[in-house]
Design goal:
The complex is a heterodimer. Chain A is an alpha+beta fold. Chain A has 2 helices and 5 strands, in the order E-E-H-H-E-E-E. Chain B is an all-beta fold. Helices cover about 0% and strands about 40% of the residues of chain B. Chain B is built from 1 helix and 28 strands. In chain B, strands 3-2-1-28 form a 4-stranded antiparallel β-sheet, with no helix packed on it. Chain B has a 4-stranded antiparallel β-sheet with strand order 4-5-6-7, with no helix packed on it. In chain B, strands 8-9-10-11 form a 4-stranded antiparallel β-sheet. The longest helix of chain B is centred in the middle third of the chain and has 4 residues. Classes of the chains: A alpha+beta, B mainly beta. At the A-B interface, helix 2 of A face loops of B.
Chain lengths: ~90, ~375
Amino acid sequence: MPTVRFTQNIQRHVACPTLEVPGATVRELLNGYFSIHQQARGYVLDDQGRLRQHMAIFVDGAQLRDRDHLTDPVPAGAVVDLVQALSGGKHS
Amino acid sequence: MSTRCHVATKKGLFTLHCTSAGWSITQANYIGDNCTLVMHDPRDGALIAALNHGHFGVKMHRSRDGGATWTEIAAPKYPAKPADYVPKTPLEGKAADWSLKLVWALAPGGADEPGVLWCGTLPGGLFKSEDGGNSWELNRPLWDDPRREEWFGGGADHPGIHSICVDPRDSRHVSVGVSCGGVWNTRDGGKTWQLTGHGMRAEFMPPERQFEPNAQDPHMLAQGRANPDVFWVQHHNGIFRSTDAAATWTEITDVKPSVFGFAVAVHPGDSDTAWFVPALKDEKRYPKDGRVVVNRTRNGGRGFETLTRGLPQEHAYDLVYRHALDVDETGDRLAFGSTTGSLWLSEDSGDSWQTLSSHLPPIHAVRFEKS
């Protein structure tokens, strides 16, 4: 089962523990994760369900391609990292 | 008279308290986080803070104990954009993104509608909560008006609603200010909207479109409480006043040192008295000659006094944003804060000012607790 890991930087806003979650695509994986940790959804995805502009997702180290629909495949046993992009710092 | 004042800044939310020893910061929340707006609800004492975390989006938090503890509440969420949606008339060539960019206005509903809150946002959606902010719903009549698609950003990359005025006589009468999109009014609680910027003038438009109500850039809209038919606007290129509930507007010219600025506050007991914080227009945006001043009119804009006592008069480059000037419920106590972290307070309607801080983070909003 794939593992979902979050950046430490998000943890002070909302708890996002590392979890193993079933799913064949990033979308399925995140839907599973956010069904458990509902408040985290809005920190990662925007109103339309897209990856936030200044967030990044890596599947086994490869950057997500489909930021709008999150259809990138996730191999069984993959590690999916959710981190903040280095862009987007102007608000802080 | 208000004895507590909340200051939303780029690096946290600060609360000032007035005791017999004077004003001091007694509370600091969200240190290091961009707190873009704060609202105090006089009906139940709740505080609502809007945070923009950048990477992680815009969030809302509420305190029911004066700011001692906070709980995250729902942020306004735009509905799913229909897959076949085609914008009809986007002025800048592309449709608004149906996604929250900034909470730009927060206002409690009327005294007769507890729990109702209004929220203005970038990219132009007006949201309403009927449960104190636990949930929000986009006002579709305004969002679906084809003229909304003609709105455009003023300074920001997206258009937005920055001012919300609920008529103290009738909570169903709500007026909103839009940058850029003029002034809109509803008389039925948001079911139908009228565009009412007639008489406003926009120098930034081509000559034949300068009086187009939907192209106006009101920077801040404020309604009189003593006479709610009186509205004041600090506009991108001037000061405007209405005496017919925002239906028509008269431009007030020849105001020294400048007519440009962002903020306006109206005396709660005298709608002909209003305060402004002028700056050089419009691409430079600093106080003329490096002198921070407040302009006050007491006669409906026929004349202005330029108030300087206690304010820096050399090499001061403080800009005051639209939500960063407030007056309390007596009209005696005012406060304003600047982009360079200065915070000033007056106890005598602006005649003189004391510096409460000169080293806060950049200030977005200053709000007194009012009864």
